[in-house]
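Final paragraph of the annual report: two paired records, presented back to back.
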Amino acid sequence: IWRALKHCIGELEVPSQEESHPEDLDFLTSSSLGLKALVIDNDALSSLLLKEMLIHEGIEALSVNCMLTACAHHREKSFDLIFLDPNLPDINGSATIDKLRENMQNPAPIVIVSTNSDSHLVRECAQKGVKDYIIKPIDKELLKTRIERILPHN
Protein backbone atom coordinates (compact mmCIF):
# COMPACT_ATOMS: atom_id res chain seq x y z
CA ILE A 1 0.00 0.00 0.00
CA TRP A 2 2.76 2.47 0.91
CA ARG A 3 4.50 1.90 -2.44
CA ALA A 4 1.27 2.65 -4.31
CA LEU A 5 0.69 5.64 -2.09
CA LYS A 6 4.21 7.01 -2.65
CA HIS A 7 3.78 6.51 -6.40
CA CYS A 8 0.50 8.45 -6.39
CA ILE A 9 1.58 11.38 -4.24
CA GLY A 10 5.29 11.48 -4.91
CA GLU A 11 8.06 11.00 -2.44
CA LEU A 12 6.49 11.15 1.01
CA GLU A 13 8.53 10.32 4.07
CA VAL A 14 6.82 7.38 5.75
CA PRO A 15 8.08 6.34 9.18
CA SER A 16 8.94 2.67 9.65
CA GLN A 17 7.23 0.76 12.44
CA GLU A 18 10.40 0.99 14.55
CA GLU A 19 10.55 4.79 14.09
CA SER A 20 6.83 5.41 14.54
CA HIS A 21 5.61 6.83 17.85
CA PRO A 22 2.02 7.79 18.78
CA GLU A 23 2.96 11.47 18.95
CA ASP A 24 4.18 11.25 15.34
CA LEU A 25 0.63 10.60 14.12
CA ASP A 26 -0.11 14.33 14.40
CA PHE A 27 1.69 14.84 11.07
CA LEU A 28 -0.95 12.68 9.38
CA THR A 29 -3.77 15.08 10.23
CA SER A 30 -1.99 18.42 10.57
CA SER A 31 -2.71 21.11 8.02
CA SER A 32 -0.38 23.89 6.99
CA LEU A 33 -3.16 25.60 4.97
CA GLY A 34 -5.78 25.50 7.71
CA LEU A 35 -8.19 23.68 5.38
CA LYS A 36 -10.24 20.63 6.31
CA ALA A 37 -11.56 18.01 3.92
CA LEU A 38 -13.96 15.14 4.46
CA VAL A 39 -13.41 12.04 2.32
CA ILE A 40 -16.45 9.76 2.04
CA ASP A 41 -15.53 6.52 0.31
CA ASN A 42 -16.11 2.89 1.28
CA ASP A 43 -13.09 1.70 -0.74
CA ALA A 44 -10.35 1.66 1.92
CA LEU A 45 -7.41 1.96 -0.48
CA SER A 46 -8.96 4.79 -2.53
CA SER A 47 -9.87 6.59 0.67
CA LEU A 48 -6.37 6.22 2.09
CA LEU A 49 -4.72 7.39 -1.13
CA LEU A 50 -6.95 10.46 -1.42
CA LYS A 51 -6.52 11.31 2.26
CA GLU A 52 -2.73 11.10 1.97
CA MET A 53 -2.73 13.21 -1.22
CA LEU A 54 -4.72 15.88 0.60
CA ILE A 55 -2.41 15.80 3.62
CA HIS A 56 0.56 16.07 1.25
CA GLU A 57 -1.06 19.26 -0.13
CA GLY A 58 -1.37 20.66 3.41
CA ILE A 59 -5.06 19.91 3.89
CA GLU A 60 -6.31 18.19 7.05
CA ALA A 61 -8.32 15.16 5.98
CA LEU A 62 -10.79 12.89 7.68
CA SER A 63 -12.03 9.78 5.88
CA VAL A 64 -15.19 7.82 6.57
CA ASN A 65 -16.73 4.84 4.79
CA CYS A 66 -20.49 5.49 4.91
CA MET A 67 -23.01 8.33 4.82
CA LEU A 68 -24.20 7.77 8.39
CA THR A 69 -20.70 8.38 9.76
CA ALA A 70 -20.14 11.28 7.36
CA CYS A 71 -23.28 13.04 8.56
CA ALA A 72 -22.31 12.53 12.20
CA HIS A 73 -18.87 14.07 11.59
CA HIS A 74 -20.29 16.87 9.51
CA ARG A 75 -22.60 17.88 12.36
CA GLU A 76 -19.61 18.04 14.73
CA LYS A 77 -17.09 19.76 12.44
CA SER A 78 -17.11 22.10 9.51
CA PHE A 79 -15.22 21.21 6.36
CA ASP A 80 -13.90 23.37 3.53
CA LEU A 81 -14.20 20.63 0.93
CA ILE A 82 -15.95 17.27 0.67
CA PHE A 83 -14.84 14.40 -1.57
CA LEU A 84 -17.67 11.94 -2.12
CA ASP A 85 -17.86 8.57 -3.82
CA PRO A 86 -21.58 8.26 -4.64
CA ASN A 87 -21.51 4.45 -4.35
CA LEU A 88 -21.73 3.84 -0.62
CA PRO A 89 -23.09 0.81 1.23
CA ASP A 90 -25.91 2.76 2.91
CA ILE A 91 -26.92 5.03 -0.01
CA ASN A 92 -25.81 5.53 -3.60
CA GLY A 93 -26.12 7.67 -6.69
CA SER A 94 -27.03 11.33 -6.63
CA ALA A 95 -29.12 10.70 -3.49
CA THR A 96 -25.80 10.83 -1.60
CA ILE A 97 -25.57 14.55 -2.42
CA ASP A 98 -29.10 15.22 -1.15
CA LYS A 99 -28.47 13.32 2.08
CA LEU A 100 -25.20 15.11 2.68
CA ARG A 101 -26.70 18.55 2.05
CA GLU A 102 -29.62 17.77 4.39
CA ASN A 103 -27.12 17.37 7.19
CA MET A 104 -24.86 20.33 6.37
CA GLN A 105 -25.00 23.45 8.50
CA ASN A 106 -22.55 25.32 6.26
CA PRO A 107 -22.47 23.89 2.74
CA ALA A 108 -18.98 22.95 1.60
CA PRO A 109 -18.09 22.37 -2.05
CA ILE A 110 -18.60 18.73 -3.01
CA VAL A 111 -16.29 16.92 -5.42
CA ILE A 112 -17.41 13.52 -6.67
CA VAL A 113 -14.68 10.86 -6.89
CA SER A 114 -15.86 7.74 -8.65
CA THR A 115 -14.97 4.95 -11.03
CA ASN A 116 -18.36 5.57 -12.68
CA SER A 117 -18.10 7.88 -15.69
CA ASP A 118 -21.77 7.48 -16.66
CA SER A 119 -22.84 10.74 -18.31
CA HIS A 120 -26.28 10.58 -16.69
CA LEU A 121 -24.78 10.50 -13.18
CA VAL A 122 -22.28 13.26 -14.05
CA ARG A 123 -25.13 15.44 -15.34
CA GLU A 124 -27.30 14.71 -12.29
CA CYS A 125 -24.45 15.63 -9.93
CA ALA A 126 -23.79 18.86 -11.82
CA GLN A 127 -27.48 19.79 -11.57
CA LYS A 128 -27.28 19.28 -7.81
CA GLY A 129 -24.44 21.80 -7.55
CA VAL A 130 -21.42 19.50 -7.32
CA LYS A 131 -18.26 21.52 -8.00
CA ASP A 132 -16.31 18.80 -9.80
CA TYR A 133 -16.35 15.15 -10.84
CA ILE A 134 -13.05 13.25 -10.80
CA ILE A 135 -12.71 9.74 -12.21
CA LYS A 136 -10.63 7.25 -10.19
CA PRO A 137 -7.77 6.58 -10.04
CA ILE A 138 -7.03 10.13 -9.00
CA ASP A 139 -3.97 11.82 -10.45
CA LYS A 140 -2.17 13.96 -7.82
CA GLU A 141 -1.54 16.88 -10.21
CA LEU A 142 -5.14 16.87 -11.40
CA LEU A 143 -6.32 16.84 -7.78
CA LYS A 144 -4.09 19.80 -6.92
CA THR A 145 -5.35 21.78 -9.94
CA ARG A 146 -8.99 21.07 -9.12
CA ILE A 147 -8.55 22.08 -5.46
CA GLU A 148 -6.90 25.34 -6.50
CA ARG A 149 -9.77 26.03 -8.90
CA ILE A 150 -12.45 25.29 -6.30
CA LEU A 151 -10.71 27.09 -3.42
CA PRO A 152 -8.68 29.75 -5.28
CA HIS A 153 -8.03 31.93 -2.24
CA ASN A 154 -5.96 29.22 -0.53
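The closing record of the year follows.
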Amino acid sequence: RTTGIVDLQRSRMRSIKPNIVPATAPGAGAAMIRFTRQRAAIRRAFLAAGRPRSPAEARAGARREVRSLGLATVYRNIRALLDDGWLHQIDLPGEAARYEIAGQPHHHHFRCDRCRRVFDVPCPGAPPVDGVPTGFVVTSHDVLLQGRCADCGA
Protein backbone atom coordinates (compact mmCIF):
# COMPACT_ATOMS: atom_id res chain seq x y z
CA ARG A 1 0.00 0.00 0.00
CA THR A 2 1.44 3.37 -0.97
CA THR A 3 0.47 6.86 0.04
CA GLY A 4 -0.66 9.60 -2.28
CA ILE A 5 2.78 11.20 -1.93
CA VAL A 6 4.49 8.07 -3.22
CA ASP A 7 2.02 7.84 -6.12
CA LEU A 8 2.72 11.47 -7.02
CA GLN A 9 6.48 10.86 -6.87
CA ARG A 10 6.11 7.78 -9.10
CA SER A 11 4.26 9.78 -11.75
CA ARG A 12 6.97 12.45 -11.68
CA MET A 13 9.72 9.85 -12.01
CA ARG A 14 8.36 8.45 -15.26
CA SER A 15 9.40 11.60 -17.08
CA ILE A 16 12.86 12.13 -15.56
CA LYS A 17 15.65 12.33 -18.10
CA PRO A 18 19.34 12.97 -17.33
CA ASN A 19 19.87 16.74 -17.16
CA ILE A 20 20.39 19.58 -14.76
CA VAL A 21 17.27 20.91 -13.08
CA PRO A 22 16.52 23.31 -10.23
CA ALA A 23 16.31 21.62 -6.85
CA THR A 24 12.72 21.59 -5.62
CA ALA A 25 13.35 20.58 -2.02
CA PRO A 26 12.28 23.04 0.65
CA GLY A 27 15.21 25.23 1.60
CA ALA A 28 17.22 24.23 -1.47
CA GLY A 29 17.31 27.82 -2.67
CA ALA A 30 18.79 28.24 -6.12
CA ALA A 31 20.78 25.00 -5.96
CA MET A 32 21.06 22.96 -9.13
CA ILE A 33 21.11 19.19 -9.00
CA ARG A 34 22.23 16.87 -11.76
CA PHE A 35 19.82 14.09 -12.66
CA THR A 36 21.82 11.27 -14.14
CA ARG A 37 20.61 7.90 -15.31
CA GLN A 38 22.01 6.42 -12.10
CA ARG A 39 20.20 8.89 -9.84
CA ALA A 40 16.92 8.39 -11.69
CA ALA A 41 17.27 4.60 -11.33
CA ILE A 42 18.02 4.92 -7.61
CA ARG A 43 14.99 7.15 -7.10
CA ARG A 44 12.78 4.69 -8.97
CA ALA A 45 14.16 1.86 -6.80
CA PHE A 46 12.99 3.70 -3.67
CA LEU A 47 9.61 4.47 -5.25
CA ALA A 48 9.08 0.88 -6.36
CA ALA A 49 9.94 -0.52 -2.92
CA GLY A 50 7.24 1.38 -1.05
CA ARG A 51 9.26 0.81 2.14
CA PRO A 52 12.58 1.89 3.67
CA ARG A 53 15.63 0.46 1.93
CA SER A 54 19.28 -0.04 2.76
CA PRO A 55 21.87 1.18 0.24
CA ALA A 56 22.40 -2.45 -0.85
CA GLU A 57 18.64 -2.91 -1.41
CA ALA A 58 18.49 0.36 -3.36
CA ARG A 59 21.43 -0.80 -5.49
CA ALA A 60 19.77 -4.15 -6.22
CA GLY A 61 16.59 -2.38 -7.36
CA ALA A 62 18.42 0.23 -9.44
CA ARG A 63 20.66 -2.36 -11.13
CA ARG A 64 17.62 -3.57 -13.04
CA GLU A 65 18.07 -0.39 -15.08
CA VAL A 66 21.78 0.38 -14.70
CA ARG A 67 23.66 -2.91 -14.48
CA SER A 68 27.08 -1.35 -13.81
CA LEU A 69 25.87 0.65 -10.79
CA GLY A 70 28.40 0.50 -7.96
CA LEU A 71 27.69 0.77 -4.25
CA ALA A 72 29.84 3.91 -3.91
CA THR A 73 27.66 5.61 -6.54
CA VAL A 74 24.55 4.60 -4.59
CA TYR A 75 25.99 6.11 -1.38
CA ARG A 76 26.89 9.37 -3.17
CA ASN A 77 23.41 9.63 -4.65
CA ILE A 78 21.72 8.81 -1.35
CA ARG A 79 23.74 11.65 0.25
CA ALA A 80 22.63 14.02 -2.54
CA LEU A 81 18.99 12.93 -2.20
CA LEU A 82 19.20 13.46 1.58
CA ASP A 83 20.67 16.93 1.03
CA ASP A 84 17.85 17.69 -1.43
CA GLY A 85 15.25 16.62 1.12
CA TRP A 86 13.94 13.84 -1.17
CA LEU A 87 15.07 11.03 1.17
CA HIS A 88 14.83 10.70 4.94
CA GLN A 89 17.26 8.64 7.03
CA ILE A 90 15.92 6.03 9.44
CA ASP A 91 18.17 4.91 12.27
CA LEU A 92 17.40 1.49 13.72
CA PRO A 93 19.05 0.10 16.85
CA GLY A 94 22.05 -2.08 16.02
CA GLU A 95 21.79 -1.68 12.24
CA ALA A 96 23.04 0.55 9.47
CA ALA A 97 20.75 3.37 8.42
CA ARG A 98 17.85 2.81 6.06
CA TYR A 99 16.31 5.44 3.83
CA GLU A 100 12.79 6.27 2.73
CA ILE A 101 11.09 8.93 0.66
CA ALA A 102 10.68 12.12 2.69
CA GLY A 103 7.42 13.93 3.28
CA GLN A 104 5.28 10.94 4.19
CA PRO A 105 2.74 11.20 7.00
CA HIS A 106 4.00 10.10 10.41
CA HIS A 107 4.30 6.33 10.67
CA HIS A 108 6.13 3.61 12.56
CA HIS A 109 8.35 0.80 11.32
CA PHE A 110 8.31 -2.99 11.46
CA ARG A 111 11.56 -4.97 11.13
CA CYS A 112 11.41 -8.65 10.22
CA ASP A 113 13.62 -10.73 12.52
CA ARG A 114 14.32 -13.24 9.78
CA CYS A 115 14.93 -11.30 6.52
CA ARG A 116 15.76 -7.96 8.25
CA ARG A 117 13.59 -5.97 5.83
CA VAL A 118 11.86 -2.89 7.24
CA PHE A 119 8.25 -1.93 6.47
CA ASP A 120 6.12 1.14 7.14
CA VAL A 121 3.26 0.84 9.64
CA PRO A 122 0.58 3.57 9.62
CA CYS A 123 0.21 5.61 12.80
CA PRO A 124 -3.24 7.19 12.84
CA GLY A 125 -3.06 9.19 16.05
CA ALA A 126 -0.97 11.52 18.14
CA PRO A 127 1.85 10.12 20.28
CA PRO A 128 0.76 8.67 23.62
CA VAL A 129 1.66 11.12 26.36
CA ASP A 130 0.22 9.34 29.38
CA GLY A 131 2.89 8.99 32.01
CA VAL A 132 5.08 11.81 30.72
CA PRO A 133 6.28 13.76 33.77
CA THR A 134 4.74 17.16 34.43
CA GLY A 135 6.62 19.90 32.64
CA PHE A 136 7.96 17.59 29.92
CA VAL A 137 6.99 18.30 26.29
CA VAL A 138 6.82 15.46 23.75
CA THR A 139 8.14 16.67 20.39
CA SER A 140 8.41 13.34 18.57
CA HIS A 141 8.45 9.60 19.06
CA ASP A 142 9.80 6.52 17.31
CA VAL A 143 8.30 3.05 17.43
CA LEU A 144 9.96 -0.04 16.01
CA LEU A 145 7.85 -3.18 15.89
CA GLN A 146 9.66 -6.48 15.44
CA GLY A 147 8.59 -9.94 14.38
CA ARG A 148 8.24 -11.86 11.13
CA CYS A 149 6.91 -10.44 7.88
CA ALA A 150 4.29 -12.23 5.79
CA ASP A 151 6.96 -13.60 3.40
CA CYS A 152 8.92 -15.18 6.26
CA GLY A 153 5.88 -16.66 7.99
CA ALA A 154 4.59 -16.02 11.45
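The chain has a mean pLDDT of 81. This concludes the annual technical report; the extension proposal builds directly on these records.
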